[in-house]
């Protein structure tokens, strides 16, 4: 029971007051006080009424802030984005904002482009169907012949969804650690990792320079042209510059030009073959042309407005998803890991946290292994379970070794990444791997954070086909028996559920569970059996062989195998199976799997009728 003060109010009454209730309380107090003969408080527009309004609404504002911040003052309890953002600022953690879709492309040079080395200049873009994608770095390639040919560039053949926007010139005042707020106005979506700064410095040369983005200005040397970016509590970007001790300081008279990618958000995503021999265009404005003349590498042969017409692009795969900003729960999870790593990647957890945070629009899941794991686990799997005498006989392993491994494999860090866009193919064996361009992007951006003696390499995920299977110890070719195995559901005769609906519920329960399993996850058949038994209308579940009379076992009996190697590593599961860190299950053909689910119903005379 609440305690009352001398004012006849509960001690927790502050939490329920607003301006009107406080105003009414003051007026009521004055009216009930027999020692006061005021009546003006009851008339709107009177002086004392205006004074009461000012007091009431002032306290209303203070109480609002009290209620908003009383439970938001520490890391564990904060639930509002602006509060958790301010708290993690104390440890220099910078939340990640929105990320536009990324599109790997192939570059093709036409016969009108002579053989030689060329560079696609930064900010070059391609548009089709109202969608625009932009190069954010120079891309150098060699055209070997005078014929039309697909070209492999030295760099990331990646385009980012959105258009380059030019922010008005900013004139700094020249203070230490000067901060510039990027405020484009409206509901503009800025790609978090694509903000670019150029500064025209007041010196003898009086020219434009490229300033580099760094994770923290305090890690920079005195004369480095660097800046850091923070996505602040108001969901705007702050650009912070140095003080001539940590990073070069902006001076009065300098001019700061800011460029950023303006994203279309979710609607910017495109499917494969959206760009088919599409032309690319050079970005140019009068201001940027002046900047470009000062900052370009004069040793490179850049494509111009005319020669760029002889270069086309194609996309043979879908773009990645649009990445939303970090949520409060994600900040709470990532900030402690960031603080412990101190901008350095040393442990497996550091690598995994860094990749999940910075590339969440690219990846679905990632695992990290060291050289010992690679040798004792992955190579053992390739040799013993797949029966390959050399790991290079595996196509994926060979390509990853060729493109990303160096001459010494002793200190490699191996990343297994499942792309965010997961594709099941029912006609050909599943091939859903991160493209080389995206792998190169991740590897190059990790370079600034990893230890000097560690090198980044990749293991493509091993997709294990999961299916119903019941086999016996005397049988040798166990993969063939999945084709003769089905799941028999005995439906209660009194159940009102439709047979097809029951079949769909069983199918959805199984597929939802399998789709939730990530790299190195646990396939728990007993748990799945329990989930199926919770479905109303089911009396019994059995896995049976259609080619063997009277065969059958209670519950589910599954198998998993690598379809690329015809099931050499097949495993039958009726209890639990722990996958390896580079393995992930999937159902190759959902239609065929669903057709293996049979529903039977018991009638009153105990006859069984199959549907």
Detailed description of the structure:
The structure is a single chain. This protein is 24% helix and 25% strand. The two termini are 63 Å apart. It is α+β, with helices and mostly antiparallel strands and 611 residues long. Helix 3 packs parallel to helix 5. It contains twelve helices and 32 strands. The strands form eight sheets. Strands 10-16-12-13-14-15-11 form a seven-stranded mixed beta sheet. Strand 4 and strand 5 form a beta hairpin.
Structure, briefly:
The protein is 24% helix and 25% strand. The chain has 611 residues and is α+β, with helices and mostly antiparallel strands.
Descriptive labels:
alpha+beta; globular; 611 residues; disordered N terminus
* Widest sheet: strand ordering: 10-16-12-13-14-15-11
Mean pLDDT across every amino acid position: 85
- The residue fraction in helices comes out at 10-25%
Parts with pLDDT < 50 across at least 5 consecutive residues: 1-6, 604-611
What class, by secondary structure content?
Answer: alpha+beta
Number of strands: 32
How would a textbook summarize the main sheet?
Answer: 7 strands, mixed
- How big is the Rg? 32 Å
Beta-strand content: 25-35%
**First-residue to last-residue Cα separation:** 63 Å
Helix segment count?
Answer: 12
Q: Specify the overall morphology.
A: globular
């Amino acid at each position: 029971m609440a305690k009352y003060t001398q004012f006849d109010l509960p001690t927790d009454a502050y939490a329920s007051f607003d301006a009107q209730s406080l105003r009414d309380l003051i007026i009521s107090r004055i009216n009930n006080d027999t020692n006061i003969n005021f009546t003006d408080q009851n008339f709107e527009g009177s002086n004392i009424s205006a004074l009461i309004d000012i007091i009431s609404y002032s306290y209303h504002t203070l109480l609002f802030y009290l209620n908003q911040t009383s439970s938001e003052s520490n890391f564990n309890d904060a639930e509002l984005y602006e509060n958790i953002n301010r708290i993690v600022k104390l440890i220099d953690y910078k939340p990640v904002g929105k990320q536009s879709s990324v599109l790997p492309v192939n570059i093709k040079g036409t016969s009108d482009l002579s053989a030689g080395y060329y560079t696609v200049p930064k900010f070059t873009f391609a548009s089709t169907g109202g969608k625009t994608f932009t190069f954010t770095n120079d891309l150098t390639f060699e055209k070997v012949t005078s014929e039309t040919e697909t070209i492999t560039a030295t760099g990331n053949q990646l385009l980012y969804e959105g258009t380059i926007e030019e922010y008005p010139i900013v004139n700094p005042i020249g203070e230490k650690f000067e901060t510039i707020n990027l405020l484009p106005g409206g509901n503009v979506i800025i790609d978090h990792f694509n903000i670019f700064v150029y500064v025209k410095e007041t010196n003898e040369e009086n020219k434009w320079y490229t300033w580099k983005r760094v994770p923290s200005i305090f890690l920079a040397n005195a004369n480095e042209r660097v800046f850091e970016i923070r996505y602040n509590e108001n969901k705007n970007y702050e650009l912070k510059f140095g003080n001539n001790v940590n990073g070069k300081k902006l001076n009065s008279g300098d001019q700061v030009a800011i460029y950023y990618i303006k994203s279309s958000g979710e609607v910017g995503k495109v499917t494969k073959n959206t760009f088919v021999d599409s032309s690319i265009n050079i970005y140019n404005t009068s201001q940027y042309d002046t900047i470009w003349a000062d900052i370009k590498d004069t040793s490179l042969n850049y494509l111009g407005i005319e020669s760029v017409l002889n270069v086309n692009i194609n996309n043979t795969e879908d773009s990645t998803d649009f990445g939303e900003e970090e949520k409060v729960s994600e900040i709470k999870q990532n900030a402690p890991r960031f603080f412990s790593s101190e901008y350095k990647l040393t442990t497996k957890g550091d690598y995994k946290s860094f990749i999940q945070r910075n590339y969440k629009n690219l990846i679905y899941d990632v695992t990290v292994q060291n050289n010992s794991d690679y040798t004792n686990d992955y190579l053992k799997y390739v040799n013993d379970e797949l029966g390959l005498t050399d790991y290079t006989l595996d196509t994926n392993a060979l390509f990853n070794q060729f493109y990303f491994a160096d001459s010494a494999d002793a200190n490699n860090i191996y990343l297994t990444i499942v792309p965010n866009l997961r594709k099941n193919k029912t006609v050909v064996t599943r091939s859903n791997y991160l493209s080389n361009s995206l792998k190169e992007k991740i590897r190059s951006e990790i370079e600034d954070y990893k230890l000097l003696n560690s090198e980044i390499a990749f293991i493509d995920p091993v997709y294990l086909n999961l299916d119903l299977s019941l086999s016996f110890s005397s049988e040798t070719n166990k993969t063939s028996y999945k084709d003769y195995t089905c799941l028999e559901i005995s439906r209660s005769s009194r159940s009102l559920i439709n047979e097809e609906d029951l079949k769909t519920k069983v199918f959805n329960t199984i597929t939802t569970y399998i789709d939730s399993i990530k790299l190195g996850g646990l396939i728990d058949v007993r748990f799945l059996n329990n989930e199926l038994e919770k479905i109303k209308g089911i009396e019994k579940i059995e896995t049976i062989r259609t080619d063997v009379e009277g065969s059958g076992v209670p519950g589910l009996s599954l198998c998993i195998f690598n379809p690329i190697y015809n099931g050499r590593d097949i495993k039958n599961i009726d209890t639990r199976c722990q996958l390896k860190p580079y393995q992930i299950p999937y159902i190759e053909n959902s239609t065929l799997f669903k057709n293996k689910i049979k529903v039977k119903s018991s009638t009153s005379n105990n006859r069984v009728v199959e549907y």
